[in-house]
Amino acid sequence: MSTNLITEYLEKITSQYQNSTKFKATVQLLLQQLQKTYDGYTQIQNAFDIDNAVGLQLDVIGEIVGAPRSINLSTGKVELGDTDYRFFIKAIIARNMFKGDRESFLEVTSLLLNTSTDMILIETSAMNCTLSFNQKLTDIQEEILQEYLARPCGVNFTLTYITTGKIFALADDNGNYSNPNLAGFDIGHFATEI
Q1: What confidence score (pLDDT) does residue 192 get?
Q2: At a CB cut-off of 8 Å and minimum separation 6, what does 154 contact?
């Protein structure tokens, strides 16, 4: 639906009534009220978009998903600022969306980290995985990720990141990499463990 409802709907009046000024004026009057309602709805929707919300708006979203602004971390009880609180809310949402399989894990983690291609999940051994991503997080976000990341029960995760370039890896026998974010000597970078 377009933003200007008045113009959109006035254009839909059939040719039979196009020259009827009273009919068009009545329709326009009704559409003005509809436009005000639509604009108000759009403002509320934008105000409570998790990526745009701030302060009390984030508190309302956090209350809905069960994410308090004050959480216990290794440093004690912490009152989260808007950026870290937004990340925490997304972590709780991701955890609630997680279905327990590899595809679901990659989907919810990419939503949390706002990335889809710059993330690699490597199964290093039985019940052990390494998740590498191309993003530096704040210390609080790193701890939230360690504590609240959705993961299959019993699977140990090592979290690593790089800030620039591709992650160092060895190619297969044909010289190919399993992911476009991997590269070999002179190009790939070693990831930093969180």
Answers
A1: 65
A2: 127
Q: CA 109 to CA 140: how far, in whole Å?
A: 17
* pLDDT of 67 above 60: yes
pLDDT at 194: 67
Q: How many residues are given for the chain? A: 194
Q: How many CB atoms lie within 10 A of CB 186?
A: 6
Q: Which helix (H) or strand (E) holds 147?
A: helix 139-148
Secondary structure, 3-state, 106-140 = HHHHHHHHCCCCCEEEEEEECCEEEEEECCCCCHH
Radius of gyration of the chain (CA): 25
Calpha distance 36→132 (Å, rounded): 47
Among 137, 187, 185, smallest CA distance to 159 is for 137
Q: How many helices and strands (H and E) does the chain possess?
A: 6, 9
Is residue 171 helix, strand or coil? coil
Two structure tokens written together for 80: 């989260």
Band of pLDDT at residue 117, cut at 50, 70 and 90: low
The residue among 157, 161, 165, 156 whose CA lies nearest residue 141 is 161
